[in-house]
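During the reporting period the student researcher (J.K.) took over the structure-prediction task from the postdoctoral fellow and processed the backlog of single-chain submissions. One of the processed entries is reproduced below for the supervisory committee.
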Amino acid sequence: MTDFNIIERRWLVDLVPDEARIRCSYQRRRNRILQYTVQLEVAHAGRWWPVLRYDNAHGFCHCDTIHADGTQDKIPVYYGDANQTFTRAIEDLRANWQAHRARFLRELHK
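J.K. obtained the following structure tokens:
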């Protein structure tokens, strides 16, 4: 008998404790990711702020740059299938979180 249940996972990756983290989640069936979210969050003034989010909501893989005023820029991203894009999103945020954090904090202090 084959198991085709949907598996859900959620976890946090601390980049710098109490300063920056990546929030990850996915739903998958077997080895295929159906839905995912990878979000960079930074701590400032006693709360966590979303700064950049990769997901495949709205029927396509994209990246949302989240601005301090709450607006978002949505950019389509294509790194292959959802599995590849999910992995690439985590790699990107691990490598570039400091630049994304600096951009967001500059916007907060305008």
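The committee noted the following: The chain has a mean pLDDT of 95.
J.K. will present the remaining backlog at the next meeting.
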